[in-house]
Amino acid sequence: MTDFHELDTRHSLGIYRFALFLCGDASEAEAIIAETFVRAVVGKALRAPAAFKGYPLNIARNLYLESVQRRKRFVH
């Protein structure tokens, strides 16, 4: 099993850049990446490190889409 710290250092910058691309806001991107890693650990992604790269990107995208939906609900 690969160490979480190793996975974090290997993938966090790419996931952060992806989140920043999606939302355009550094603080929101940081919140997305933090929640992404929490969900990845809870989802047992560390058991399959080869699949870890795509899994958190999907989580980050879903978190961004959830935040967009929440904002739409508050506006309407």
Description:
The chain has 76 residues and is an all-alpha fold. It has one domain (4-75). The protein is 78% helix and 0% strand. The chain is elongated and about 40 Å long.
Q: Which range best describes the helical content: under 10%, 10-25%, 25-40%, 40-55%, 55-70% or over 70%?
A: over 70%
Report the portion of residues in β strands. under 5%
The main sheet comes to: none
Main structural class:
mainly alpha
Rg: 13 Å
| Uncertain stretches of 5 or more adjacent residues | none
Q: What is the mean pLDDT?
A: 82
Total domain units: 1
- Give the distance, in angstroms, between the N- and C-terminal Cα atoms: 46 Å
- Could you give the count of β-strands? 0
The helix/strand series, from N terminus to C terminus, equals HHH
Gross morphology: elongated
Helix run count: 3
Chart the SSEs and their pairings.
Blueprint: H1 4-23, H2 26-42, H3 54-75
Key features of this structure:
0% strand, mainly alpha, single chain, 3 helices, 76 residues
Can I get a quick summary?
The protein has helices at 4-23, 26-42, 54-75.
